[in-house]
Amino acid sequence: RFMECLDFASVPKLNGWEAAKEYLESAAAEMVKEERMTEAEMELISLYQVYRFLDTEEAGRMTEAAKKQLLCSEQPFVMSLPACRVWPRTESEEPVLVQGIIDVFWEEEDGIVLLDYAGDRVCQDYTGYTVYGDLLPQAIIDNNYKYRMQRKTN
What's the burial of 125, exposed, middle or buried (CB within 10 Å: 0-12/13-18/19+)? Predict the structure, then answer.
């Protein structure tokens, strides 16, 4: 939830853990004040883990995308698929409805970048997501997010 509430467009260049800790504690306090998160939820957050993520190239790219209004987070999707794509042990082609939420994605010059937060880490290989692994990129296409992203900047 913390990553969902964090305003990536406002994340400054973090020079070491001490500076990052001060910024993240301030951001956390603001989230609680604005009732976007509770004190109890905040106690579960490892600000050091958040800092470690914010210190990555991907987080820098997210910040740049957010500044350009190209960062999309917590985007719901709904799609109809043959049952055999959702449950590999069945051969049924009967359509089933799949719905979920894409944690975060953004557009860059060479395409769309998709990240999935997995607990206290960021997962990019999707191997733990049998169904979602190959469906998330398709969900972005099927739910017409590129069109929405283009409209947002106009």
Answer: exposed
pLDDT level of residue 124 (50, 70, 90 thresholds)? very low
Please, which pLDDT band fits residue 28 given cuts at 50, 70 and 90? very high
For the record, the structure tokens of 148 come out as 């929405």
Give tens-digit pLDDT for 39-65.
998 888 888 988 988 888 888 999 999
* Among 13, 20, 43, CA closest to 31: 43
Q: What CA–CA distance (Å, rounded) separates 20 from 47?
A: 9
Closest by alpha carbon to 118, among 99, 98, 132?
132
Q: How open is the CA angle 95-86-58, to the nearest 5 degrees?
A: 125
One-letter amino acid at 50 equals: V
Question: pLDDT class for 116, splitting at 50, 70, 90?
Answer: confident
Residues 6+ apart with CB under 8 A from 69: 152, 153
Residue 32's alpha-carbon distances to 53, 110, 119, in angstroms, are: 21, 37, 20
Cβ proximity of 145 and 105 under 8 Å? yes
Phi first, then psi: give them for residue 109, nearest 5 degrees: -55, -35
